[in-house]
Structure formats: C-alpha cells, structure tokens
Amino acid sequence: MRSATQISAKAPRVLYQFFEVRVDREESQWPEMHKRKRQWVTYSQAAAALVARPELLDALNRSSIKR
Looking at the domain assignment, is residue 61 inside a domain? Predict the structure, then answer.
C-alpha cells in the first residue's frame, strides 16, 4: 500500500503510458540493464504484484493479455 506522502497533494504528478508489444527475442544485454530488472510473469502474478497500485492494475485489466 502506498504511504500518505505518496498520495498527498505534495506528491509529484505522473503520467503513465502503456504499450503492448510482441517480443520476438530477448537480449542478454540492453541499454537500461543496470537500472531495471526484467521479469516475465503470468497475468495472475502481475495482477497480484499490482494489487496496491490500482492505476496500474486497471491498465493491466484493460490490456489484451490472455487471462
């Protein structure tokens, strides 16, 4: 769950953009590999991981990912 600071009026505003893509291959190295972790999960695992982030869970539910 997000803290009161994260959802207060002083919290920075953000804009999320989501893009569905088809992955044809997975490279062992990529430009942001030292900043980001890559993890492949099922729809159910993604939904469980996003339960505290309703705005992200909503985006997942609107996607065409097979449930």
Answer: yes
Task: State if pTM tops 0.85.
Answer: no
Dist. CA 42–CA 45, nearest whole Å: 5
Residue 31 domain flag: no
b/e sequence 13-51, b meaning 16+ C-beta within 10 Å:
eeeeeeeeeeeeeeeeeeeeeeeeeeeeeeeeebbeebe
Q: Which of residues 24 and 3 earns the better pLDDT score?
A: 24
Quick check: is 56 in a domain?
yes
8: pLDDT confidence band, cut at 50, 70 and 90? confident
- Give the whole-angstrom CA distance, residue 59 versus residue 34: 26
